[in-house]
Write a structure and sequence with these properties.
The chain is mainly alpha-helical. It is built from 8 helices and no strands. The model has no long low-confidence stretch (mean pLDDT 93).
Length: 203
């Protein structure tokens, strides 16, 4: 079943990358189908507490991508939902560790102080999201004892950081030839790895 999921995701991945490179058609439907596939693939693992957290996080990711891929691009709502995703990943790591590390929790919550001074909510939410993503990636990378599960999760979050760097660079007009493609070049593999990290049977 996992092999079928990876194969289907790979087909969709190649499909939307070809469309992005050639600009032959809108790739958004294939991208949304790929992320929806990741959520569907995570559902069988929801029999466990870890699987439920992962499936719920991917459900919010699907909703976030629905808003971000829409022609009108409802970015505030999309980023807000991605903040929820990161909160669920934090809960997943806390469950593995048996509690939340206080120093990391303080760092995760620090961007909330920006709301006291921010005139625009979106940049503050982006900061909150990205800081929490980096914290989760660091915790996953440094998790001991390391396991196949933690390694896959760490790799998924590392790829997600690469995706978000591309998003930021593209919005700043930097290296747009690559970053336009790079967003999803990294994003779908990151989500596939997150799904596999919750599956004890692997690929």
């Amino acid at each position: 079943m996992r092999r079928l999921f990876v194969a289907a995701a790979a087909l969709l991945y190649v499909g939307f990358l070809v469309l992005d490179l050639t600009r032959a058609a809108d790739s958004a439907p294939l991208k949304f189908a790929a992320i929806s596939l990741c959520f569907a693939a995570a559902l069988p693992g929801a029999r466990t507490a870890d699987g439920r957290l992962t499936a719920l996080a991917l459900a919010f990711a699907v909703c976030a991508d629905r808003f971000l891929l829409a022609p009108d691009g409802r970015y505030l709502l999309g980023v807000s939902l991605f903040c929820v995703v990161q909160a669920l990943y934090c809960a997943r790591l806390a469950r593995w560790r048996g509690g939340i590390r206080r120093c990391m929790l303080a760092l995760r919550l620090l961007p909330l102080a920006a709301f006291l001074f921010a005139q625009d909510t979106l940049p503050t939410l982006v900061l909150l999201y990205f800081v929490n993503l980096v914290c989760s990636a660091l915790e996953a990378v440094c998790f001991r004892p390391a396991s196949r599960q933690t390694r896959l999760f760490a790799m998924g979050l590392a790829l997600l950081i690469c995706c978000d760097i591309c998003v930021g660079a593209f919005n700043l007009g930097l290296w747009t030839g690559f970053t336009r493609i790079g967003m999803w070049l990294f994003y779908l593999p990151s989500q596939v790895l997150v799904v596999l990290s919750a599956d004890p049977k692997g690929v």
